[in-house]
Structures are given as structure tokens and as C-alpha cells.
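Page 42, continued from yesterday. The earlier attempt failed because a stray header line got pasted into the input along with the sequence. Redoing it now with the clean sequence only.
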Amino acid sequence: MISRKVLGLTTAAVIGTITMSAGVASAQQVSENIVSEKGDWAVYEEADPKECWAVAAPKETVNTKDGRVVTVTRSQMLLMTFYRPGAGVDAQVTFTGGYPFAPGSTVNLNVDGTEFELITQGEWAWPENKGEDAKIVAAMKAGANAILTARSSRGTTTKDTFSLSGFTAAVGEAQSRCK
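This time it went through. C-alpha cells are written below.
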């Protein structure tokens, strides 16, 4: 039986099935279809519609407001890479910070010193185009950590650090499952 330690969750449920419609990401359902674990990453697969993704939870989170560390309530914080052949989605990087992002803000993604910008809507963030997805995935395959820094609609700055241990194997399996 596969453990749930990869995501540090107390239940088997993980937000899944992201639909990209007119550039808007929204959670459609909850998935319990974990198929494997690769280091700090897990791989999920859904059959209808066919969809596969690699996902991880942060190893460390720091929340600050006005320069001071603060305690805040957030839902699941997840970094994911999706494959959805029926919709033409191939290695789409998606991040949910567990709160609504500040309107008009962006998320900074730093992979071992290489920085990328993610656009936001609601609680979701993703690269502006497929070309950026490809660059981010390549950096993550070569990297050790991904740090995502964002600002909530309440003005809190969040910094979430994700381990990239197992990322290459996880996205490889997700991709092969969704050919």
C-alpha cells in the first residue's frame, strides 16, 4: 500500500483534476487515485477525462506581514505538473498557495537561483504560456528546490519551499501514463 507521507496529508484526498478554460484554473474534484511515489513527489492518474499529474507539498513555509513572521490559516499548498492529452495539456506547471492571491499579483518561482513569474487568478498560479512551462520543468528536473513567493489578498507574503527530489521520475511517469 502506498503511504501518504509524500504530501504530508492526513487523508488520501489531494486536490486534483485541474481544468484550463480560457486560462482559468479551477479544482473540479478531489482525487484519491495515487499510483506511485517518487521521492518527495506523488503521481496521480484519472481515467475520465484522461489526466495524470505529479504533485508535492512544501517542505517549509514562512508567512510574513509587515516584516514579521505571522501564523495564518491556509488550505493545501501544492506544486503540480499536469498532463491531459484530450485538452492538449502537456507538462503544465500549476501552483495553489492555499489562499486567494492578491488581485493582479504574480508568484515568483525560484528554482536554484533561476527565477520565473507565474500569473494568478483566485488561488491558482501558472506560467503565461507553454514555452515557460517547458523552461520551468527543465529547471525543476535539474534543480534541488523550488521556492514560491506570493502575496495573499490580505497582504501576507508567503514563501513555500518544495523539494525537487523525485520530480524528474514523477513527471516522467505522469507523462508516460498520459500518452
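Notes: The CA atoms of residues 46 and 52 lie 6 Å apart.
Reminder to self: strip header lines before submitting.
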